[in-house]
Amino acid sequence: MCGIAGIIARRSVNRQAVQTMINAIAHRGPDGEGIWSSDDGKVMLGHRRLAIIDPTPAGAQPMVDPSGQLVLTFNGEIYNYLELAERLTSEGQDFRSTSDTEVLLAAMDKWGDAALSEMNGMFAFALFDHRRGKLICARDWFGEKPLLYVETPEFFAFASEYKALLSLAEVALDVDEDRLLRFLHQPRRGLDDERETAFGAIKQLLPGEYLSVDATTLTVEITRYWTPGPDADLARLSEPDAVSRFRELLSDSVAIRMRSDVPVGSCLSGGLDSSSIVCLNRRHLGPDKAYHVFTGRFPGTAADEWSFADEVIRANDVESHVVEPSAQGFMDELPEFMWLNELPVGSSSQYAQWCVFRLAKYEGVTVLLDGQGADEILAGYEQYFLPYLRARADTSDQSEEQAIRARYPAALLSGNRERLSKLPLWMRHRLANMVSRGSDFLFGLNADAAARIGDSEAQTASSDLNPLTAALLEDAFHAHLPTLLRYGDRNSMAHSREVRLPFCDHRIAELALSVPPEYLMGGAETKRILRRGMEGILPEKIRTRWNKQGFLPPQDDWFRDRLLVWAEETIADRSFAERGVWNVNWWRRVIDRLKAGEQHLAWPLWKPLIGETWYRHFLDRVKAMPKVPALAEPGAMS
Question: How many CB atoms are located within 10 Å of the residue 397 CB?
């Protein structure tokens, strides 16, 4: 896990520009840095290293192959690098290190772009190929690792984070205000699911893609190497065979993500997903090897899951480390939290995640496994029961729907909210402001901004897949998980930690998208295939835990005290009104209603606060950064 940056141009690149870019992301790689330049100075690649596999100088980057024709700067891990190295060795490849970086470099040399489909990992990398006269940039199957880029007539630049690209003098700080507001309105979308980003000049490579930049013309071509979807052979598996296949895949996914030359541990919430990983790890490690788990706690509140986490800790004899995120801690760390997250975040859950990674750094554990992705891939949210029943319309009966309602009372509700939402937005906006009722974020925008954002809400594309598979595909690769992966990347890298996600394995996704809906949600069970697969491995208290509880601080409680002061100060500040999009009186009344006991308003109130905080602690700080020209002066040495 590292930070990467680079520039390819029509004339010599300014070395100080690449140095500034990697300095901006030094937190991603505290163990070393490097810059490589082509002989003509028109290509320059930078790297910040977090040493995980082969931490010796032999694994340093940018890495040049023995022929001198290929140069690589790489962020991430290739988990199946041992198997790939064995194949390459059988084809005559010699290795100078034991790093996965060298395996990636050799695979791209031997197999070309087809090597991407052989990689099981999380990665974002740039490879300059002298022979082809091209820069190749690629991003992993799920988009766990970021790859941001800028195209201009004179140069192409890429980096792991926005701040690195925004340090270039030629990159305008052009903020897409409406895109940010759409994200605040619906955090599932807007900033991570499209090629365009919050900054007009910056684009992102999407999951499962690679691009090539012609060194002469700077022409950019984008190619998709993987499109997630059902597999006909997997669709024919019986349920017992599918469960067995899933258990084998998850066990292997966990095992290969344990490969490391530095300490590895796990995040543990006490939920089904992280608990499954801890239990499988204990099986892989055996009973005697120490293993460290990290848990965020909120004692005395409904958000605390300690009783479940403790069940897993005792069952697996692991070393437990606990942190208790607080509202005061959040306020104290807010400036740096926003700077390193780079974009607004959906809730205080992301701060809790930040605290867990910080604790791991304090305890000296560099790599952490986490359960992110299981809910979106394996149908872990109760709202998936609606598309599930639609998918089973021809075969399901009344008793199945009754069983769902009994176990998940809110899963199939439609109610007044849906009927109310059918009213025109302008009418709902006016009514809400007249009677000071409602909680829709759009009511807190002025009428023009509300109309723009409301009218631009993304619609789910039609699909010939069954409704449940279509919903999982949408949430895992477009609408929800991509945003969560950004949070995980920024929060882990803020503390120079690496987070690995066993459920974000393309083999597991292909299985889940192929099997019949009842394998995932039959019997009124969320993540049925995981529950069945973990029989005899997970404590029964965890395996049959039906309620879904996200890793979330007691945000409502936090708004009774310290965060309420934050809200009052933010909305009273002159800059809030001068932003030109907020309905200031609405938010003042929201605070009054919150004080009067309407605690559910803590959720919509978070949105303008985190938006304004982003302006102050990220955007204003970027504006104050010294800017460096990407290109050297004509005739000057780079």
Answer: 8
**Closest CA relative to residue 607, chosen from 331, 351, 345:** 345
Is residue 419 scored above 80 in pLDDT?
no
What digits encode the pLDDT tens for the residues 269-318? 999 999 999 999 999 999 889 999 999 999 998 888 999 999 999 999 99
- 446 close to 585: Cβ distance less than 8 angstroms: no
Q: What is the layout of strands, in order, in the sheet containing 121-129?
A: 63-64, 70-78, 121-129, 134-139, 209-214, 220-224
Helix locations, 148-202, DSSP H: 162-165, 177-185
Question: How far apart, in whole angstroms, are the C-alpha atoms of residue 138 and residue 120?
Answer: 13
Query: Under a CB-based contact definition with an 8 Å cutoff, are residues 368 and 265 in contact?
Result: yes
Q: How many residues does the chain have?
A: 638
pLDDT at position 415:
43
Q: Residue 416 — very low, low, confident or very high, per pLDDT cuts 50/70/90? A: very low
Does 354 score more than 80 pLDDT? yes
For residue 394, what are the contacts with CB-CB under 8 A and spacing of at least 6? none
Q: Is the dihedral of CA 398, 402, 408, 411 positive or negative?
A: positive
Average pLDDT of the residues in 173-186: 93
CB distance 13 to 37 below 8 Å = yes
Q: Return the DSSP state at 462.
A: P
163, amino acid identity = K
The tens digit of pLDDT for each residue in 252-276 reads 999 999 999 999 999 999 999 999 9
Which residues have C-beta within 8 Å of that of residue 426, sequence separation ≥ 6? 447, 451
Categorize the per-residue pLDDT at 440 as very low, low, confident or very high, splitting at 50, 70 and 90: confident
pLDDT over 70 (residue 223): yes
Q: How far apart are the first and last CA of the chain?
A: 28
Tell me what percent of the residues of the chain surpass a pLDDT of 70.
Answer: 94
Query: What pLDDT score does 365 carry?
Result: 97
Q: With beta carbons less than 8 A apart as the criterion, state whether 56 and 102 touch.
A: no
Which pLDDT score is estimated for 288? 87
- CB within 8 Å of 233: residues ≥ 6 apart: none
Residues with Cβ within 8 Å of 72's Cβ and at least 6 positions away in sequence, in order, are 45, 61, 62, 63, 64, 65, 101, 104, 105, 108, 125, 126, 127, 128
How far is it, in rounded angstroms, from Cα 23 to Cα 584?
Answer: 39
Instruction: Provide the token pair at 468.
Output: 């449940």
Q: Are 479 and 193 in contact (CB under 8 A)?
A: yes
pTM, full prediction = 0.94
Q: Are 98 and 54 in contact (CB under 8 A)?
A: yes
* Structure confidence at residue 435 (pLDDT): 55
Q: What sign has the CA pseudo-torsion 248, 253, 259, 264?
A: negative
Q: Is the preceding omega at residue 62 within 30 degrees of 0, hence cis?
A: yes
User: What is the separation of C-alpha 130 from the centre of its chain, rounded to a whole number of angstroms?
Assistant: 33
Q: How many CB atoms lie within 10 A of CB 463?
A: 13
Q: How far apart are CA 529 and CA 520, in angstroms?
A: 5
H helix runs in 161-270, sequence order? 162-165, 177-185, 232-235, 239-256
Question: What is the pairing mode between strands 63-64 and 264-267?
Answer: unpaired
